[in-house]
From TrEMBL:
Entry-linked NCBIfam families: PRK14822.1, RdgB/HAM1 family non-canonical purine NTP pyrophosphatase
Taxonomic path: Bacteria, Bacillati, Bacillota, Bacilli, Bacillales
Active-site positions on this chain: D70 (proton acceptor)
Name of the molecule in the record: dITP/XTP pyrophosphatase
EC class: hydrolase
Any coiled-coil regions, as ranges: none
InterPro entries associated with the record: dITP/XTP_pyrophosphatase, ITPase-like_fam, RdgB/HAM1
Alphabetized Gene3D superfamilies for the sequence: 3.90.950.10
One GO term describing the cellular component: cytosol
Single biological process term from Gene Ontology: nucleotide metabolic process
Length: 203
């Protein structure tokens, strides 16, 4: 298995995947390498449903193996919100600042020990023959009362990581890649990678 399509146009995600799979000798392509690829509408109610939907749609389109991810923030005091709606929590514009402000407003008055939250990532690998495999990664933390840090994106400035005693936005890229939900999901995927594609590797 020498080539894999990553079902994203996010350059940051693409770079992460390329770095990870270089050691496997796998060429990574993304949706930026193809013209006029339509966005796959995320109609699922879970991270897994959305990841599978994206992966299978693109695999059927190009007849090649595809990885897709769906990820987001789960806040316990908000009954699991924003969840699968993390990117568009404050509206369709995907405005990080507006999303952060909505979470903080809803958590006003909630003490720190009750502001438990986690980032969740599901990766789906779809083969052209219809086989689909999913893996998950989770990073546990707390929601701060105000944004702290300049790095990262999304909800990183309000996500406090206890083991680092800093927010995700205060971590270097290398530190984040050690503990993030996506990094953990990718590591799980690497553990099963050879078995997943052993028939392709033998041919």
């Amino acid at each position: 298995m020498k080539r894999m399509i990553i079902a994203t146009k996010n350059k940051g995600k693409i770079a992460e995947f390329q770095q990870l799979f270089a050691k496997k000798g796998v060429e990574i392509r993304s949706l930026l390498d193809y013209d006029d690829v339509p966005d796959v509408e995320e109609t699922g109610t879970t991270f897994a449903e959305n990841a599978i939907l994206k992966a299978t749609t693109i695999a059927n389109m190009f007849h090649e193996p595809v990885i897709a991810d769906d990820s987001g923030l789960i806040v316990d005091a908000l009954n699991g919100e924003p969840g699968v709606y993390s990117a568009r929590y404050a509206g369709e514009g995907k405005n990080d600042q507006a999303n952060i402000e909505k979470v903080l407003k809803k958590l006003q008055g909630v003490p720190f020990e009750q502001r438990t939250a986690r980032f969740h990532c599901t990766l789906a690998v779809a083969k052209p023959n219809g086989d689909v495999t999913t893996v998950d990664g989770v990073c546990e933390g707390y929601i701060t009362e105000e944004p702290v840090g300049e790095n990262g994106f999304g909800y990183d400035p309000i996500f406090f990581v206890p083991e680092k005693q800093r927010t995700m936005a205060q971590l270097t890229k290398e530190e984040k890649n050690e503990i993030s939900h996506r990094a953990k999901a990718l590591q799980h995927l690497l553990h099963i990678w050879d078995k997943l594609f052993e028939k392709e590797n033998e041919s």
